[in-house]
Structure formats: structure tokens, C-alpha cells
Design brief:
With about 200 residues, this protein is mainly alpha-helical. Helix 5 packs across helix 11 and helix 6 crosses helix 7. It has 2 domains: about 45 residues, Homeodomain-like (Arc Repressor Mutant, subunit A, Orthogonal Bundle), CATH 1.10.10.60; about 150 residues, Tetracycline Repressor, domain 2 (Orthogonal Bundle). The chain is built from 11 helices and no strands.
Length: about 200
């Protein structure tokens, strides 16, 4: 069955979002204007406002999509018949693949700067993000239920595990402009994080 053609209004909306992402990345939040977004998207300013009442709402949408892409990138159902270290390595490699994407890091840097500059603007979106469960936390919850990990708050343990990765593959890139990790470095970070995590939590 052929895919139904996308409506013109949907194509325009996607073009606006793509243009906004590019402008926020290259110019930052304050210097980005709805006029410039409209020009880059190839639509009228009125069309931009028909889809997004304000720059703040457009930015909030991009923040939410950024977070969703981070969560969606980590998806691995727990397997009772596989070693824990094999599964966790696969999870962390998915995470490291995302963190190695220069576009993701650039946009995360813009988002982080704006959250720090205007925390009230990002408060609602951050709260919605906190209501979701990431793939790592879901995996940990399943492993606990299977009796292979110690009883622990899955969210707490998930933050610990991802913190071991982000301290090398996210924060240095976002805050200090370091280059993404090379493949060998990613492997080293993932393997050491898994060893430390299972060394403490494995039953």
C-alpha cells in the first residue's frame, strides 16, 4: 500500500521546525527571530504564527522533541535468557550513538543555555519530561523483577548508569566544546560503566 501524501500544512510545519532547529543551533535563542525562521523555512511569517503562537512555544516543542529523541534512542526489551552485561552494553551503545551526533549536541547546548538563562521558560517542559520513563529505567525495573539486580529505585539506578556515560560523552561536549568520543573511547566508557554498575547492583 502506498503512503498517503503528506498534507501541505504538515509539510510547512515540518519545514518551520527544521528551520527553527537550524537557527537556534547557529544563532542561539535570543538572536533567533520568527522572521528569520520564516525566511529559512520558505514560508510567510503569518504561516509560522499560524502553527506556533510564539518563539517560546516553538522552542519548547524543540526541547520536547530533543528529549523524545534521547529517550527513543534507548530501547531494548529486557531478556531473561541473555547475560546482563551484554544487554547493558547494547543499551549504552545506543546512548553513545546519540551522544556522538554533532547535531544533537549542538541543539542540546542551545537548550541548556536557554534553560540556565530562563529556567521559568523551560520549567513546564522539564516537568513533563520527568513524567516519562526511559528505556534504561524500564530495563532495570524488569531485571529487578527477575531477581537479577538488587532492589533499588530504577530511576535512581538509571540516572547513575547514564551519569557514568554522560560525564565523558555529553557534559564535556556541551559545556566545553570537546569533540565527540571516538569509537574506541565509546567502547571503553560503555564497558567500564557496565562493569561498575553490575559490580554494585548485580545479584
Amino acid at each position: 500500500m502506498s503512503r498517503a501524501p503528506q498534507r501541505l500544512t504538515d509539510r510547512k510545519r515540518e519545514a518551520i521546525v527544521r528551520a527553527a532547529v537550524e537557527e537556534f543551533r547557529s544563532a542561539g535563542y535570543e538572536a533567533t527571530s520568527m522572521d528569520r525562521i520564516a525566511a529559512v523555512a520558505g514560508v510567510s511569517k503569518r504561516t509560522v504564527y499560524n502553527h506556533f503562537p510564539s518563539k517560546e512555544e516553538l522552542f519548547a516543542l524543540i526541547l520536547e522533541e530533543l528529549w523524545h529523541s534521547s529517550v527513543a534512542s534507548i530501547e531494548l526489551p529486557y531478556r531473561a535468557d541473555q547475560p546482563l552485561d551484554v544487554q547493558l552494553l547494547q543499551l549504552l551503545r545506543q546512548k553513545l550513538d546519540l551522544l556522538g551526533d554533532a547535531n544533537f549536541i549542538d541543539l542540546a547546548r542551545v537548550a541548556m543555555a536557554e534553560i540556565i538563562h530562563s529556567p521559568e521558560r523551560a520549567q513546564a517542559i522539564v516537568c513533563r519530561m520527568g513524567e516519562k520513563e526511559s528505556g534504561v529505567s524500564a530495563w532495570i525495573r524488569a531485571a529487578i523483577a527477575d531477581g537479577r539486580l538488587r532492589e533499588v529505585d530504577p530511576e535512581f539506578a538509571g540516572h547513575q548508569l547514564q551519569g557514568l556515560v554522560k560525564s565523558f560523552a555529553f557534559w564535556p561536549q556541551v559545556t566545553m566544546g570537546q569533540a565527540p568520543l571516538a569509537p574506541a573511547e565509546r567502547t571503553r566508557v560503555a564497558e567500564s560503566a557496565v562493569a561498575m554498575f553490575l559490580g554494585f547492583y548485580a545479584v
